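A further point concerns the way the authors explain their paired sequence and structure data. An entry of this sort, consisting of the sequence and the corresponding backbone structure tokens, reads as follows:
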Amino acid sequence: MTLSTLLLSTILGISGCSNSSNTNTNSTANVENHDGHDHAGHDHSSHSHTSKAAEQQQKIEELSQKAPAQVLPPFKFYKVKSGISFTNDDIPKGKKTAFILFDPSCGHCQIEAGQLGKNYAKIKNVNLYFISMNDPALMANFLETFGKELVGKPNVEVLYDKNQDFIQKIHVPKQFPANYVYTAEGKLQSHWDGDKKIDFILTEYTK
């Protein structure tokens, strides 16, 4: 499945930490109710924009309703620091793997990174990958700023999803951060999106 450029830009343009933006339910009614309305010289471009935005939002909602990949599919991401490609074959064997789809500007993502850093001793045996489709320049110092205890750890990596493999092959979440925990055999154990208490996250990562 290939997402349209407009849909992708909508996902990348998420404000805050949510894919679900509030739409004005009155806008459609206002457009349809033209009784006595003078159309002369009226610019309808805003109506068209509203309609397209609503369609894209609906598409995101439909995609996010689909269950995540039950078995981890082939993917190719890129290490933010080095630009070196990172695929399924690069995941250390015999450990659970947790993917965190995030936006560097998302406050909840920043908080989760900090909480995980403070509890690193409890997750040192879990492969932990922060993944984003954002500009690598915006991701470069994410851990240094918000999860400094995770910097340089052998089981932690920040990855750039250059080709949008995650949302096309694994899942489109409703909110950031979105967490996906896969077993050592590559099977989906659990997933959730949005902010959660750190005790819940640690339990899911290590149970």
Remarks:
- The chain has two domains: 5-64, 76-206.
- The chain has nine helices and seven strands.
